[in-house]
Amino acid sequence: MEEINGEIEKTREIYERSIGNLPPTNEKKHWKRYIYLWINYALFEELISKDMERARSVYSECIKLIPHKEFSFSKIWILYANFEIRQLNLDKARLIYGQAIGRHPKSKIFDQYIHLEIELGNFDRVRTLYEKYLEIMPDNCDAWCKFAQLETELGETVRARAIFELAIQQPNLDRPEVVWKDFIDSEIQLKQFDFVKQLYRRLLEKTNHVKVWIGFIKFVHSIKDKQQQQQQQQLKQEDDSTTTTTTTNIDINQPTREIFNEAHKALSNSDKEERLLLLESWKEFEQTFGNQETLNQVLKKIPQRVIKRRSDGSGGIEEYFDYIFPEEEKSTQTSLKLLEAAQRWKKLKQQQELQKQQQQQES
Prior knowledge:
Number of strands: 2
Strand content: under 5%
Number of helices: 18
Largest sheet: 2 strands, antiparallel
Strand order of the largest sheet: 1-2
Shape: elongated
Radius of gyration: 35 Å
């Protein structure tokens, strides 16, 4: 209210009394609302009273008060730095970001500092910041990807590839799938298709997830048109008869089909839902690009969905869907045949023993 009425001194007095009431403990949850008192106070001095020195003093005193060894607040550091930028004090803003990184480094601090230097075009300084960022937080996938993206945008593709290579070697990435995806997408944009295939193979050595297989398959299928164009250009250099004979023998979908087959074998011991997902994708592919023969081969691999019952853990019974694959049916049939044979053999032995006993009794 005092702020609205333009009572500058009274407002200052209220803010001073408010910030004098420190939180009861050094737990961050008790400081969150308290910090906003300082933020509002600093904004009041800058925007209402137009006293920049007082605003700077408020930010500075707030920074001194926070127990940075236990926790910190990215927001107050960023607001302080942005305040100095508005005052055209770039060196002071850099110093503030540097202090924040030194006392309690956080991703938001690095991101804002890097954004500032990118806006200023200081890319060498940006590289230094990213190196420090990744030294402190080597598991931060977003940082690795943004660093590589920056180098790509600057035309430094060799640097970008080296950054991605370092990233995928890190043992404890928070989201490794993000790094792999960005690495692969980056190489696709550069049309390094052979290298992309190598990346997929390397990724499949680390994980046998069905989504990786499907991604690999979609990539191989997506480049078939480009490969077909290259083949046609090569064939144009030959005579017409050779061209006609060769093109009729080329099946551009065969590489995709081979990887489907490879994935199907690799996932044979995986979760049934994953195996079904792959087969559904394969069936859709054959319906679009294959023929009746290739489609039938896939349909033979599709599992049968059955309803089963099991205990729900509380004494009741629940129904659920299960999938029986053709190879499992064959295995079950073989087991049943073996069981039947064993039972016949047991029955025969019992009959022989019974006949033997009868003969002994007669003699």
